[in-house]
Design a protein that fits this description.
Layout: H1 3-14, H2 19-26, H3 30-38, H4 42-45, H5 48-61, H6 71-90, H7 95-105, E1 111-113, H8 114-121, H9 125-137, E2 142-146, E3 151-155, H10 159-186, H11 191-216
Antiparallel strand pairs: 1-3, 2-3
Length: 222
């Protein structure tokens, strides 16, 4: 990224433009713009000259050489991976959980053992165990037994979109029922009771719509 690019980022921030709009104007992925701003002071503290100097210092520290044929693909994969992890963390996933999930999504066939995840992400087996436990519980991945290698394989496929949506909607529905019941207990003639009852009714309607929509559009998943 050139100094001129960074000055255009600063101008876009000053004009109140979104990261996506700045990225379109620079013909760059949104994740690249997000990382550039995030590592250089954030939206309020971004300074193009300072950011350019910091990038030059990182470049001087050097990195292992890669073949010219591998570099474009590697860079694209890294940008997609980092952007997806940032998005997942922003949506509430712990970073290690997000890294495991995105690592599976970007693997060749969506199937990896715990050992393969540990080697690929360069983290401890205990960290992988915690992450896959959470992801399995949420329906974002599933666990299969590989009889040939006698070990578990963690799988992510198109059906994961459906299962995770259904699990999330059912959790919201349970919260809706609890909220409505609390409103009834406290009394609909009280401000707190009415607020809880209305909130519960809203959550109930949203979750039921999500469940119906998941069934309606499931055929889009091969």
């Amino acid at each position: 990224m050139t100094l001129q690019d960074r000055r255009r980022i600063a101008a876009g921030l000053a004009d109140g433009r979104s990261y996506a709009e700045i990225a379109r104007r620079l013909d760059r992925p949104t994740s690249t713009i997000s990382r550039e701003i995030g590592r250089n002071g954030g939206p309020a503290g971004y300074r193009p000259e300072r950011a350019h100097q910091a990038a030059a210092r990182r470049a001087r520290r050097g990195a292992p050489a890669r073949s010219p044929e591998a570099e474009p693909r590697d860079r694209k994969v890294v940008e997609v991976e980092e952007g997806a992890v940032e998005l997942a963390v922003g949506m509430g996933l712990p970073k290690m959980v997000a890294r495991v999930l995105i690592g599976l999504w970007l693997s060749e066939d969506g199937r990896l053992t715990a050992a393969e995840l540990s080697r690929g992400l360069k983290v401890s087996p205990a960290s992988i165990s915690m992450a896959v436990g959470y992801l399995t519980q949420q329906g974002l991945i599933r666990r299969e037994r590989d009889p040939q290698r006698r070990r578990d394989v963690y799988v992510v496929d198109n059906d994961a979109w459906y299962h995770s949506t259904v699990i999330g909607a059912r959790q919201t529905l349970a919260a809706a029922e609890l909220t409505k019941a609390a409103g009834q207990t406290l009394g609909l003639d009280t401000p707190v009771g009415r607020r809880l009852a209305r909130g519960g009714a809203f959550l109930e309607r949203i979750s039921l719509d999500a469940l119906a929509s998941a069934e309606r559009w499931r055929d889009l998943l091969p």
